[in-house]
Write a structure and sequence with these properties.
The chain is built from five helices and no strands. By secondary structure, it is an all-alpha fold. It is elongated.
């Protein structure tokens, strides 16, 4: 059996990776802006049409996780501010972690 016959349709690259990523970005930006999947149905359909199904499902879930993390961070920051906490904001902590900065 050849390697080609073992591969799924997704791995044969009958789709365009660049287009898939562009559609992912369009959907994610719409979803984060509107905070509603129903407002972004057309973008979601475009992403599923342009990407392998497994990738589109992953991207959809990732957009939801980013939205939830952002909302949670904003809520924590709001509580800290009301309580007069001197704790750093969740955004500044994220930036530190992303840059690899210690302490």
């Amino acid at each position: 059996m050849s390697d080609d016959s073992k591969r799924s349709d997704d791995s044969k690259r009958s789709w365009n990776k660049k287009t898939c990523y562009e559609k992912r970005d369009i959907y994610t930006n719409c979803y984060l802006k509107h905070k509603s999947e129903t407002m972004c149905n057309a973008e979601l359909e475009d992403m599923f049409a342009s990407c392998p199904k497994s990738w589109a499902k992953f991207f959809k879930g990732k957009a939801l996780r980013v939205k939830m993390e952002t909302e949670l961070g904003e809520a924590v920051d709001g509580v800290n501010q009301k309580m007069g906490s001197t704790m750093p904001s969740t955004e500044s902590v994220r930036r530190k972690m992303a840059s690899g900065e210690k302490g």
